[in-house]
Structures are given as C-alpha cells and as structure tokens.
Design goal:
about 375 residues, alpha+beta, Butyryl-Coa Dehydrogenase, subunit A, domain 1, Butyryl-CoA Dehydrogenase, subunit A, domain 2, Butyryl-CoA Dehydrogenase, subunit A, domain 3, four-stranded mixed sheet, four-stranded antiparallel sheet, acyl-CoA dehydrogenase activity
Length: about 375
C-alpha cells in the first residue's frame, strides 16, 4: 500500500533500509551467535542521525515524531530485531524525559541521546513485578537534597550498555501505585550496579541485565515530574513507545515473508516451484494480508499520536497486540514454507521466529494489552452514557 510518505519520511525509510541491507544483514548471524552488543552498528546508526529522529531540533534531534521512528525501526528489524532494539529501547528510556522532563533535564540529557553518543534504558520490571507493575519493591527515600534508591530491576533492555536510565521506584509505600515516582539515574553512580547478562531465546544481539541499587544516592533534581507520578510516567511512555514494538514486529514479519516468498519461488518439488502450489500460495497470501493490516493500524496509531489526536492507550495496545501476533504467525509460517531448511541456522527464518516471540511479551504481554483495550472500551461506553 502507498502510505503517502513525505520526501523526508522516504529519506528516513531509505536510510534505515540501506543500513539494514548493507551493514546489519552481513553481521546478524554473528551477533545472534556470539550475543555481543553490536556497538559498531550502533555507531553507524548514530552517525546517520537515527537516534535523533524523534527528538526536537533544539536538543540536537531531527524534530520528527513517533511515526518516523517507527519507519526506521521497521526497516532495521527486517534485517535483525535484536540489533534494531538498541534504537527502540533507547527511545523507551528517552521518552520519559521528553514527556515529563523539565527544561534543565532535557538540556542535560537529550543532546547526547539524540546524537547516539549515549544510550538510554527504562527500568520498571522487577522479579516480583512483571505484568503486576503495581507490585514494584524498589524504593527511593528522600534524604535532604537526595533520594536513596534500593532494589532490583529485572530484564532491562540495553542494561549495562546504556548510560542513562529512567527508573520507577516507590517513594511512598502507603499509597500503592500512587506512591511511585520516576527518576533519572546515570551509569557510574555509586551504588548502581548490574547483574549478569541474560542468555535469551531471541534478540540475542540485545543486552538484557538486572539493575541493582544499593544505597544509590541521586540528586533530587533527577526526579521526573513530581513525586507520585511514576505510574503516569510509565503508562504515558508505553502509549508512545508501543507503536515502536509494533514496528519492530512488523519488520521481523516482513523480513520473514520476503525470505519465504523468494525461497518458494526458487525451491522446486515435483518439477515445479513450490510457489505454484495452492497450499503455499494461500499461506503467502495470508502472510502478506496480515502484515499489511498490522502496518495500517500501526502507522495510523503513530500518526494520530504525533498529531495530538485521541490515540493513546487503547490504540497503542491494539497496534502492539496485532503486529506482534502477526509476527509470530508469519515467522512460523515462513519456517513451514522453508520446510526442514527453515529449522536450520543456515537460513534466517528460525532466528526471526525466535526474535518475534519477545514482541508478544515485553512492554506488557499481549494478555495485558487485551486488558488495556477492554478497559478503555468500557470507559468510552461509560462516557457516552453519561453524555
């Protein structure tokens, strides 16, 4: 479909596509196997200004929005969902500063993030607080002009590699979810350490680590917004970043589809390309249709958010839900089309299936997305009835 992209949007898309094809593809198997963090490729993305796409020009960014960020993430993810995550996860850690940071905080942190000189990460999940984010235990106690952080964050993307972390911690244990606050914590702060690097099924080029806070002393100026706004910061951040997860899923799905289509055209059985068999044709048709439907929803959601329209929790959850489910189905079907070859590491579709799975889990499992969507639908009905 033609999404009527502007010349600037096409430029971003083409730039990300070129990086994916010429830089990422040749190295994706290496990074998947070694689990190293792809700093050489991150620097290439930084030199191409991809980290500044969604950051205002006055802070050194390109001044575009979530939609343009999604275009870049999708193209990079066609080659490797794990490598693209360096950009997407940095955006996740940066958006709390964009949305809730004061001018001093923005001036201090956004320029280096826009240039890709530093990466960001977001810390909400804990060992006992995954889908139940209200059960976080990490505490931040006020002590004069400082806050003292104690606790552990788990499964943090870009953990250990990022320099800037936005952390949700409890400042008033008696208020439940309303007692959480958001903070900016810099790598190297005394009392801030990292646990082991996790070994994962997929996105193995991405670093996932524990964040450990032991009497970690941070200045009160690092509080984002006001005390008690932590969950508002987290939820509003997810509203802005879930389309990015959808874009990652879209890219993985599109990459797997293109591999499967090309393979089906070349692979012969019974004297004919398997693309001539109706059973395979129907699989390809379904894959293409599902991807396009998910793309339309994701693009529309991102554009509505950028325009300041009503798109928010419900639409972002829908986009993330649909695109990630499509990515999982498409990658599994791609393996089926490849047959036995698809199960082998010599071909990229088995990696794409492994990478796709996480998109159904992080930034809220797809079961949680359904809860969010249903809750918003009920709220909308209640508002209409009151009118």
């Amino acid at each position: 479909m033609d999404y009527l992209l502007t010349e600037e949007q096409k430029m971003i898309q083409d730039l990300a596509h070129d990086i994916a094809e010429t830089k990422i593809k040749p190295k994706r198997a290496y990074y998947d196997e070694t689990e190293e963090f792809p700093w050489d490729l991150v620097r290439i993305m930084a030199q191409s200004d991809l980290f500044g796409i969604y950051i205002e020009e006055k802070y050194g960014g390109m001044g575009f929005g979530i939609f343009e960020l999604c275009l870049a993430i999708e193209e990079l993810s066609k080659a490797c969902g794990g490598i693209s995550l360096a950009l997407a996860a940095s955006a996740l850690g940066t958006f709390p500063i964009i949305l809730f940071g004061n001018e001093q905080q923005k001036q201090k942190y956004l320029p280096s993030l826009a240039k890709g000189e530093k990466l960001a990460a977001f810390g909400l999940t804990e060992p006992e607080a995954g889908s139940d984010a209200g059960s976080i235990r990490t505490q931040a106690k006020k002590d004069g002009d400082f806050y003292i952080l104690n606790g552990t964050k788990q499964w943090i993307t870009n953990g250990g590699e990022a320099e800037i972390y936005t952390i949700i911690a409890i400042t008033d244990p008696h208020k439940g979810a309303r007692g959480a606050s958001a903070f900016i914590v810099e790598k190297g702060t005394k009392g801030f350490n990292f646990g082991k690097k996790e070994k994962k099924l997929g996105i193995r080029a991405s670093a996932t680590r524990e964040l450990i806070f032991t009497d970690c002393k941070i200045p009160k100026e690092n509080l984002l917004g006001r005390e008690g706004m932590g969950f508002i910061v987290a939820m509003k951040t997810f509203d802005a970043t879930r389309p990015g997860v959808a874009a990652q899923a879209l890219g993985i799905a599109q990459g797997a589809f293109e591999e499967a289509l090309e393979y089906a055209h070349k692979r012969k059985q019974f004297g004919h390309p398997i693309s001539s068999f109706q059973a395979v044709q129907h699989m390809l048709a379904d894959m293409a249709t599902q991807i396009e439907a998910a793309r339309a929803l994701t693009y529309a959601t991102a554009r509505m958010i950028d325009a300041g329209k009503s798109a928010g929790s419900k639409e972002s959850a829908m986009a993330k839900l649909m695109a990630s489910d499509v990515a999982m189905k498409v990658t599994i079907d791609a393996i089926q089309i490849f047959g036995g070859y698809g199960y082998m590491k010599d071909y990229p579709v088995e990696k794409m299936m492994r990478d796709a799975k996480i998109t159904q889990i992080y930034e809220g499992t797809n079961q949680i997305q359904r809860n969010v969507i249903a809750l918003e639908l009920v709220k909308e009905l209640s508002r209409r009835n009151l009118c």
